[in-house]
TrEMBL record:
UniProt KW keywords: Iron, Iron-sulfur, Lyase, Metal-binding
SUPFAM superfamilies: IlvD/EDD N-terminal domain-like, LeuD/IlvD-like
Xref: PANTHER family: HYPOTHETICAL DIHYDROXY-ACID DEHYDRATASE (EUROFUNG)-RELATED, HYPOTHETICAL DIHYDROXYACID DEHYDRATASE (EUROFUNG)-RELATED
Species classification: Bacteria, Pseudomonadati, Pseudomonadota, Alphaproteobacteria, Rhodobacterales
Record's protein name: Dihydroxy-acid dehydratase
Amino acid sequence: MSNTRANRRFRSQEWFDNPNNPGMTALYLERYLNQEYTREELQGERPVIGIAQTGSDLAPCNKIHVFLMDRIKAGIRDAGGVPMEFPVHPIQETGKRPTAALDRNLAYLSLVEVLHGYPLDGVVLTTGCDKTTPAMLMGAATVDLPAIALSGGPMLDGWWNGKLAGSGTIVWESRRLLADGQIEYDEFIERVCASAPSLGHCNTMGTASTMNAMAEALGMSLPGCAAIPAPFRERMAMAYRTGKRAVELVMEDLKPSDILTRAAFENAIRVNSAIGGSTNAPPHLQAIARHAGVPLDVRDWQEIGHDVPLLVNMQPAGAYLGESFYRAGGVPAVMGELAEAGLLDGDAPSVAGGTMAAALEGWRSRDTDVIRTVADPLRAKAGFVVLSGNLFDSALMKTSVISPDFRARFLSAPGAENVMEARAVVFEGPEDYHDRLNDPELEIDEHTILFIRGVGCVGYPGSAEVVNMQPPDALIRAGVNHLPTVGDGRQSGTSESPSILNASPESVVGGGLALLQTGDRVRLDLNARTLNALVDDEEWAERRAAWTAPELHHQTPWQEIYRTHVGQLADGGCLELATAYHRVVNDLPRD
Ligand code: FES
Ligand code: MG
């Protein structure tokens, strides 16, 4: 556990106040004094707190942090620390091609180098857009410098024609209306833009709100941090308090390794079910756990998370958006409800100091229409189902978004509840899907399952959010808005599709999906939690013997480095060699 700072030199003093090496000390000092710092500050036994700035013009979801910076710095200074802001490689979900997921590990890697190689004693991690939160927590876990996460908060609620319009979710809805001919291109654009009325990240319970909730559930941010909308005054107050607390963490020597325990991850998994969280949370949490050296397995999501009820009535699983979630109490209220029902480990630690139970004292739902109680949930058993079979070792399905219509259409045959047999139609990536979806020769109908492959970490590269494929236009016009879909990529956390995704191992490294052919029969059995191609063993073995790995086209050096070292989504999509490094802060770099 942590000890206090008595008799311990600050790490930054090795740079700024080291009489044993006056030459280097002078060189370190002169250039930092050349800007906004003085010798009293840098040599005065005050901790230097880095602020990892993830916001920029290229990363609008996190740009609020540019405006929060004064408050973070004020908090650090009022607690006796010296703030030093530094930039983080931008990861904008809706800007970076081929996908922002490719850059999570790049931002992670560069954060590790910054935290290890510069005169820092602690760090404030600014988080927001999907991948920024895991990248920051992964880096902090590897380095093990005292660290605290500050969410930028969601945008204000979006509205269109008097109805709530949620980030991402309105895209999936609107593209069906467009395919159906009910709206035109211009209205499509206007509808989507109406969902984004202010600075902040997605206002739905997509991957951004989910991952900020995960940071809070893990104990890595102050209670109440995740849900405060970006433009609210409470967000500025949270920035100030977070800056202050960062200094105290250094004084108390409270590090990520003290916070990121197995109990913390189990709590996070339960909270994910209760909030109706994103299918991107499992790979991100897996990556954080591996860098923290905590054992976690994709099957833990089934075992720990599946039976937890859905409490949060927020899009895409429910009706409301971020403002209502915040007013109903946000993450502490959800955790308070879970704790009350015995579904939370109150002994898990928090950066607030003390236990999670202490941090949650007095927190319950303030609006039970928005945050329900465990006794009266939106849905029972709202977690992920982890499937396996001859097409993959593991894949996830978010059962909380299975609509009554979907269940009735595909999963309720008399005597075969939760079972579906269908014909497979296979697409080789999103371009192939768009080119051929409306081709009548594919004979896609209600008895079809759509597959997409080649879109995992190695294949895409980075793993693409494309598994929530919509049916052909003709089928939508006939009233079929969803078909079951399967793939080795991911889907947006804002999607309401009950896809089977994150299939691992992916096809390009020889996962079973690679052997599937259009026209094969497949059988989904949610009771047994299996999905299998109904191809006899001999034929399957022949296909396996005939298979060769596709040649990959790298567009940049990073794509090649990433593909050479990345693992599978079930294992967090980490740079595998990086998972061997732990607590690197204890190994001071050469002078
Ligand atoms: Fe950045 Fe959703 S696109 S948070
Ligand atoms: Mg996304």
